[in-house]
Automatic annotation (TrEMBL):
The keyword Metal-binding applies. GO terms for molecular function: 2 iron, 2 sulfur cluster binding; 4 iron, 4 sulfur cluster binding; iron ion binding. Keywords: Iron, Metal-binding, Mitochondrion. GO terms for biological process: iron-sulfur cluster assembly. SUPFAM superfamilies: HesB-like domain (SSF89360). Residues 41-130 form the Core domain. It comes from Haliaeetus albicilla (White-tailed sea-eagle). This is Iron-sulfur cluster assembly 2 homolog, mitochondrial. Heterotetramer; forms a dimer of dimers with IBA57. Interacts with [2Fe-2S]-ISCA2 forming the heterodimer [2Fe- 2S]-ISCA2-IBA57 complex; [2Fe-2S] cluster binding is absolutely required to promote the complex formation.
Length: 137
């Protein structure tokens, strides 16, 4: 993974675009490291059908990467773990196709605090709340 500040965007450093990476912003790393507000939990990122633009991001917190996360049918890896500065984000391979090259950020505002996907090169457009998007074809 490449370290990035909260406001920078991932650059064209991938040697193989099919490899797929997810980047973590500085604020995401600060919140997601052990000993922070998340403790020993890590972030799971999934993409589901739905939302006002066709697909939506789903974030959840977890403490265990299960054996079935790593081994799907026929022993195929079904999740990728992206770690930076002790912060971990787990993305299943189906969702990774929709978010590769994206940055996960932590946003803190007066009315809410949340993890968000920003700068998604796979998204054509998104809704104003930032939780749903449509895919480039």
């Amino acid at each position: 993974l490449r370290w990035a500040s909260s406001f920078s965007q991932p650059g064209p450093t991938e040697s193989d675009p099919s490899e797929g990476q997810v980047f973590l912003s500085e604020s995401c790393v600060k919140v997601g490291t052990p000993g922070s507000s998340l403790g020993s939990e890590f972030l799971r990122l999934q993409v589901e059908g739905g939302g006002c633009s066709g697909f939506q991001y789903k974030f959840s917190l977890d403490t265990v990467i299960n054996p079935d996360d790593r081994q799907g049918q026929r022993g195929v890896v079904v999740v990728r773990v992206f770690e930076q500065g002790g912060a971990r984000v787990v993305v299943d391979v189906d969702s990774l196709a929709f978010v590769k090259g994206s940055m996960v950020d932590f946003s803190q505002e007066l009315i809410r605090s949340s993890f968000q996907v920003v700068s998604n090169p796979q998204a054509e457009k998104g809704c104003s709340c930032g939780t749903s998007f449509s895919v480039k074809f």
